[in-house]
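$ ./design --mode recover --in tokens.txt
reading tokens...
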């Protein structure tokens, strides 16, 4: 049987042309497809074709782009997700996070999760020291978990993790750092209060030995993240918060490699020299302290901590 020729009257756009490229491609989608997939793909094709028309890449440039994406995929393994890193340095991770976590005014904002959260961190009593390698400037972190009305969120769970004083997470230095160094799970008391001992965080580079690091170099960008402690704060009946607190004196605050800094998350780290205050915390002066209150937005039917962690560790 001879092959049926497309009828140009069917949809008016059967053949490719530079001018109608987007419309020709999008017209190929079937009728019975997911409306969301139709929306996503037609938007992507529209913007992709517009970018190609504006850039007018040579074949060599187009091939270099394909090779970059290939190398990015080849860098991925169980520990390394180079595509998420690419999304991070392009500001897309923060944009997706912002769109999905619009909060009432006064509630603690989210920021980027990052790749170094691991489930199964040690659970410690309030006041524990989470620094197991003895490096860094001692720090006391304390505060309350409250709701947007200022009421205590009794028993809220706080997951915390940070790099050591050399700028690495424990999972990046297995066999070098003690396992579980500088990560913990705490439960706030009946007044929503929490406190623990740690060390003042320092800025550190995101993994930059792959295609994303090369891209940053070629763009004249550094790979450093502003100094921070990570938190996930969860409590039944409240929206979970995945966030950081930042030191105010970090030189990379305004140029964080993944755009994770928000003004509202810059904390006030104070140096304490008073021996009486040091004794109250069981510390030796001088040490740093930061008071930080987390404000959770009430929300019915939100995911439990376990569900949330299952979701964020699935990628
Ligand atoms: C982090 O803060 O741990 C992080 C965030 C994004 C990319 C790499 C690291
Ligand atoms: Fe981090």
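writing sequence...
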């Amino acid at each position: 049987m001879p092959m049926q020729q497309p009828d140009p009257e069917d949809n008016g756009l059967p053949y490719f042309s530079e001018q109608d490229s987007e419309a020709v491609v999008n017209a190929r989608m079937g009728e019975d497809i997911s409306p969301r997939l139709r929306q996503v793909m037609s938007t992507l094709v529209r913007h992709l074709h517009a970018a190609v028309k504006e850039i007018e890449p040579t074949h060599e440039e187009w091939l270099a782009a394909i090779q970059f994406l290939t190398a990015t995929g080849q860098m991925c393994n169980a520990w390394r997700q180079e595509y998420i890193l690419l999304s991070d340095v392009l500001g897309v991770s923060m944009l997706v996070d912002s769109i999905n976590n619009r909060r009432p005014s006064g509630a603690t904002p989210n920021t980027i999760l990052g790749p170094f959260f691991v489930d199964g961190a040690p659970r410690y009593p309030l006041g524990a020291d989470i620094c197991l390698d003895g490096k860094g400037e001692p720090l006391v972190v304390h505060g309350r978990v409250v709701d947007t009305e200022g009421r205590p969120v009794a028993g809220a769970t706080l997951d915390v993790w940070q790099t050591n004083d050399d700028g690495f997470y424990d999972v990046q230095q297995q066999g070098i750092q003690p396992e579980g160094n500088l990560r913990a799970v705490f439960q706030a008391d009946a007044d929503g209060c929490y406190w623990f001992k740690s060390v003042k965080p320092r800025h550190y580079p995101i993994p930059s030995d792959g295609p994303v690091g090369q891209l940053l170099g070629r763009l004249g960008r550094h790979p450093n993240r502003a100094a921070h402690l990570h938190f996930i704060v969860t409590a039944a009946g409240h929206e979970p918060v995945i966030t950081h607190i930042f030191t105010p004196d970090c030189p990379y605050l305004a140029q964080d490699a993944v755009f994770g800094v928000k003004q509202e998350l810059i904390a006030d780290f104070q140096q304490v020299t008073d021996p009486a205050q040091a004794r109250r915390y069981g510390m030796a002066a001088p040490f740093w302290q930061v008071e930080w209150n987390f404000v959770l937005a009430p929300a019915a039917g939100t995911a439990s901590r376990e569900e949330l962690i299952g979701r964020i560790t699935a990628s």
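exit 0
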